[in-house]
Amino acid sequence: MAAPARARQLHTIEEWTEIEEWTADLALRLLPETNGRKIEVFRGSVIVSPHANVDHQTVSTELVYALRQAAKAVGLFAYPEVNLISGDDLFIPDFGVFRVSGGGKVAMNIADALLLGEIVSPGNRRNDIIDRPKQYAAAGVPWFMRVECRNRVPVVALHSLVEGEYRPVAAAAAGTRFVMREPFAFEIDPADLLDE
């Protein structure tokens, strides 16, 4: 998906609040690019959130690196925190595997997503466990992966889309092997996702 043409960027809260109904296109055209806060659009509202804790960032880095190697071997593309357009909504999943390259793009289309994933944050559990999977399932994303780190013990779980809902396929905790065969071969000990 080509980047929307840039218009005048909005920089103040007052400018943001003048817009009554946000869309993914508006956000990508009017808001400044940032490496800081996540800025998403859901049902016409802008959602701004800070980056999660360091464990979350470490898990993301390690997992995306490993996924990228496995996906690349079969002609797929894995990325962290991609701008993802779904109708008028703009999501930023923690990671995703896509059928097409995101090279040179500002955003990807959810129709190109093969697998999307969330790393559960303590302050964002409902969104990561309930809301996001429902949104991804409604858009027809075939696979969903979730990583949880309760008491710093990583658990990886893979879900497949069946009749509009995600059903568990594989799961493993630190010290065991997480193994999946679909949508491509990938395995990892979840313990390898944290620093120690």
Low-confidence stretches: 1-7
CATH class of the largest domain: Alpha Beta
Sketch the topology as an H/E string, one letter per element: HHEEHEEEEEEHEEEEE
What order do the strands of the largest sheet run in, or round the barrel if closed?
Answer: 3-6-8-9-10-11
The whole-number mean of residue pLDDT values reads 85
Main pleated-sheet profile: 6 strands, mixed
CATH architecture of the largest domain: Alpha-Beta Complex
Distance between the termini: 39 Å
Q: What is the CATH superfamily label of the largest domain?
A: tt1808, chain A
Beta percentage is 25-35%
Q: For the CA atoms, what is the radius of gyration?
A: 17 Å
Assign a percent range to the helix content: 10-25%
Q: What overall geometry do the principal axes of the alpha carbons give?
A: globular
Number of strands: 13
Domain Putative restriction endonuclease: 30-184
Pfam family, one: Uma2
InterPro entries: Nuclease_put_TT1808 (IPR012296), Restrct_endonuc-II-like (IPR011335), Uma2 (IPR008538)
Protein name: Putative restriction endonuclease domain-containing protein
List the helices and strands and how they pair.
Layout: H1 13-17, H2 24-30, E1 38-42, E2 45-49, H3 54-72, E3 77-80, E4 84-86, E5 89-91, E6 95-98, E7 108-109, E8 113-119, H4 125-138, E9 143-150, E10 153-162, E11 165-173, E12 178-180, E13 186-188
Parallel strand pairs: 4-7, 8-9
Antiparallel strand pairs: 1-2, 3-6, 4-5, 6-8, 9-10, 10-11, 12-13
